Amino acid sequence: MAEELYRPGLEGIIAGETEVSTVEQDSLAYRGYPIEQLAEHATFEEVAYLLLHDDLPTVGQLQEFTRRVDAHRNLPAAVTDTIARIPPQVPGMDVLRTAISMAGHFDQSSGGDREQLVEQAIHVLAVVPSIIATRLRLLDGKQPIDAKPGLSHAAQFLYQAFGEEPEALETRLIDLTLILYAEHEFNASAFAARVTTSTLSDMYSAIVTGVGTLKGPLHGGANEEAMRLIKRFSSGPEAKAWTEQAIVDKQKIMGFGHRVYKNGDHRARILEPLMADLARQRGQQNLLDVYFAIKDTIWERKQIHMNVDYPCGLTYYLMGLPIDVYTPLFVASRVTGWAAHVIEQFTNNRIIRPRSRYVGPALRDYRPAAQRG
What we know:
Elements: E1 21-24, E2 27-30, E3 33-34, H1 35-41, H2 44-52, H3 59-70, H4 77-85, H5 92-103, H6 114-139, H7 153-162, H8 168-181, H9 188-198, H10 203-214, H11 222-231, H12 236-248, H13 266-281, H14 285-302, H15 309-318, H16 326-347
């Protein structure tokens, strides 16, 4: 009998085939397009279309896609009311999990063919930023704001969150983070969504599965923890001293290292220069000093690269976004990747059902209670 292959966490195991994206040591591509080119030239709307279809859209296809997304942006009153009733101390990811599930009840599309699944994906894509912005405003004692026609997906979120059209650099940065977070092959949440889909469950169940998986701090939330760390220090030297001691104490520092990328996360290198521009524009050089003190010390002492979560946390903070919305914004992007995997799994399905290695007691006989010790 052949020896069973066992790797904890399925590390290195090929669990399926996909055309959605490829993650290699020195490259990341969405349907064959390098992330560097998409980050430089594309909008998030183009990337969302690409992930849900097979290629980038034509001008006409992009206009129609944008129209379809815009049609779903405003939340039903019942969803807004539900968000308002959730206690204020509940984490943003829990609110999002509940609100996405409820919003699904108002989606008029149903069924499992490709066109119906794409329409459901468009609905989710549209409502997630509105849910995040609605919760943010309600916690701030303000009324939610309906979407404003003509704004980009990134600008729309900032408008609904803050009530005014954002600056160009802010819009660019949100757009960029949405592009960079949109998809990452068989990551934990995408794989979990595929497992749900493989049972022939529905799009919304799969997306909520993704949200629940991303909520875990070993998958999502690193950008939140990175920003909480940066906020602890008043100067670069203070941050450097703490980081050196943390390394000695073998503390885990969130925002550094990656399961796949050992030569550095391309996405982090793309985001960091624009983040630094925003910090200088806002007069926040001290935060940059802390940021680079931590980053440079970890590299000098451990040769560990940052991942995209490290600059992303400071990016969102500089825009005035509360830390609790950072991981929900990750969802606003990643729903496109999840939906692409759901559609792919539906259209070429086999139920995902791995085996386990049993390490419990050997076979033994049942004994009546009176005969047990």
